[in-house]
Amino acid sequence: MTLAVCADVGSTYTKAAVVDLAAGVLVGAASAPTTVGTDVLRGLDAAVAAATAGLGVRDVPWYVCSSAGGGLRLAVIGYEPLVTAQAGRRVGLSAGAHVVHVAAGRLGAADLAALRAARPDVVLLVGGTDGGDAETIAHNATRLARARWRVPVVLAGNGETRAELTALLEAAGVPVTAADNVLPRIGVLAPASARAAIRAVFLRHVIGGKRLSRGTRFARLVRAATPDAVLTGVEVLADTIGGDLAVVDVGGATTDVYSVLTPDERATGPGREVAGSLWRARTVEGDLGMRWSAPGVVRAAAEERLLAPAEQDDLAAAAARRAADPAFLAADHAERAVDARIATLAATVALRRHARGAATGERAGRDLRDVRLMVGSGGVLRHAPAGTAGQVLAAVLGDHAGGWALPRDARAAVDVDYVLAAGGLLAEEHRAAASALLRHHLTTH
User: Fold this and answer.
1) Average pLDDT of the residues in 202-222
2) Is the Cβ–Cβ distance between 135 and 105 less than 8 Å?
3) Considering the domain boundaries, does residue 284 fall inside one?
4) Can you give the pLDDT at residue 403?
5) Which of 59, 135, 366, 435 is the most exposed place for a label (fewest CB within 10 A)?
6) For residue 422, is it within any domain?
């Protein structure tokens, strides 16, 4: 067997999987607590040792992604809030970032102070279509240069200004990476180059800068931010099944939604999105989670009229207990039922926002009617009793009151074996193995 180790260093747990590259199947898996308080390599090495135990393997390549230490915090600076700033925000989300700040127009002193207060790991500086407005992005680049800005910048605006502004920022000591314009023409969103640049900056600056490990080995091992790897896995899975796909990942602090849609020629018509359509998208709901953000789930569900007043009071108390003790484990049937209810509400609200466009900024929302496969992910679904995860996804697919068009013929599956991240990590070097892995574990079981 030709094997590879795929590992995700999460904020709480580190998951490791051993993949048979020829057969495209898992041959070993394990997890260990993430050791952020000491050195994340301890937890990573422990998880990999447990996953490879008894396999008798040596010198196996490792593919690692990470969201430890809060993941990747991104700020976006654009020209106009509904066009280039919105386009930059969508690209940042697709790159696996947590977008912590969005600004538009010419930066002033107060804007620069707000940017600093957001504590981004990376700034995505965009603005102007190719050949369009150049003054705003030039002003903002100059402002950052004069402010002695030292947070890495990805420059992905008007292509005609790229060389000049890159030189300006470099001369001022600003770490800058140039990329193609995210919005070369109105209605045309081109995320690939900026997404790759953000990934490179994450690996070069952010992983080492968070001081998650004392040496350089961890920085050498990590290949992507976890959400970036998962979206890549979702893209491979969509290509494998040949159709539209959606994934809802319910975590302790956030609920992430991914969707891959077939490009629609109507998007180039009169009603097209001026900020462009991102056919492969991710959104992050920071107020929806199983532990840290559990109270937010209850509040959001009440606003969406998903809760009766009597249930709301009891569920709010249970959510508060979970937020106060994020390590809380449901030990009996009643507490597991509460977890399932919170997961159902988090997934339902997150899909509503994603489909309506509230989370993506798309005026027309995202059309999920042709989704063929709905995948559930996250520890609450992977470790749920038999049938519970299916019930959560069934509730999402039966959400007729949500104001969004439901998938017409979708099958539900749960990423029980945690292969989406592994598939994304393998995709660049072992595309066939990644496709086989995802097909085997998510479409044949």
Assistant:
1) 87
2) no
3) yes
4) 86
5) 59
6) no
Give the number of C-alpha atoms closer than 13 A to the C-alpha of residue 348, restricted to the C-beta side.
28
Tens-place pLDDT, residues 318-352: 999 999 998 899 999 999 999 999 999 999 999 99
Determine the Cα–Cα distance for residues 179 and 156; give it in Å rounded to an integer: 5
Q: What percent of the chain has pLDDT over 90?
A: 73
Q: Which residue has the tokens 């990934």?
A: 199
Kindly indicate the confidence band of residue 269, based on its pLDDT and cuts at 50, 70 and 90.
very low
Q: Is 13 exposed, middle or buried (0-12, 13-18, 19+ CB in 10 A)?
A: middle
Cβ count near 254 (within 10 Å): 25
The separation between the first and the last C-alpha atoms of the chain, rounded to the nearest angstrom, is 23
pLDDT tens digits along 299-310:
999 999 999 989
Q: Give the single-character DSSP code of 188.
A: B
Q: How far apart are CA 340 and CA 229, in angstroms?
A: 26
Q: Quote the tokens at residue 249.
A: 């990942």
Mean pLDDT to the nearest integer, 168-178 = 97
Domain hosting residue 39, numbered range: 3-69+210-224
**Residue 268, both tokens:** 């180039």
Give the closest residue to 277 by CA, choosing from 292, 259, 289.
259
Residue in the structure block whose two tokens are 């574990």:
441
Write out the two tokens for 124. 């995505």
Q: What length does the chain have?
A: 445
Contact between 66 and 110 under an 8 Å Cβ cutoff? The reply is no
